Amino acid sequence: MQDFIVVIPARYASTRLPGKPLADIAGKPMVARVWEQARRSSAARVVVATDDPRIEAVLQPLGAEIVMTRDDHSTGTDRLAEVVEQLALGDDAIVVNVQGDEPLLPAELIDQVAARLIQDEGASVATLAEPINDVETLFNANVVKVTRAMSGRALTFSRAPMPWDREGFREPPQMLSTDAWLRHIGLYAYRAGFLRDFSQWMPAPIEQLEQLEQLRALYHGHAIQVALAEVTPPGGVDTQEDLERVRAWFAERDA
Q1: Is the Ligase keyword given for this protein (predicted)?
Q2: pTM of the predicted protein model
């Protein structure tokens, strides 16, 4: 398989959990746990992209490769685009974006999303999804839904429950009749050339309405390949409750 690189954007500021990348998890900062997990994948390189010297300081003793980026990026994708330039990656290089708050992300999913993009030479992006099997999740606006073509490429993404069951949703459903609905998993593989272009585009109108950055790629005519995740990923760390859950997982594992 073609080599690929993992980039972990790590921003110190966080609305819900300030200093989240440095939150302690069983004696190590969270960003170090994410870096260790990413190194279990088949990636040729694992790079942490940060704008904060405190994050750099905790990772240097571990031997992590670090790229210091600007502090004015509005999105993690823009930070990735800067990394592509700093590392002088070729346009065909594959870059997997692993969020810095995913210390339990299975390494096999990193390999899977990279492989899916490599297999579909006409796609600019690859990502993952899993079936939705309960009504509450489908109608939750915080859960992003995706629909796919027969080729596996994304048709669209939305926070709305889609596809809409014209007959079945006339009344609020109590259960779902099929597994036709898919939840998007926010793990991405990109071609480096796409990241260069993406950083120059203005946000698309549909992107601004849904607040979903991936719609910018579809708006500009780029294909996004969507694979069904081989394993179910544990949730990331968005809240203090999430952090305690992850701490408990490590405590139980190390007991």
Answers
A1: no
A2: 0.94
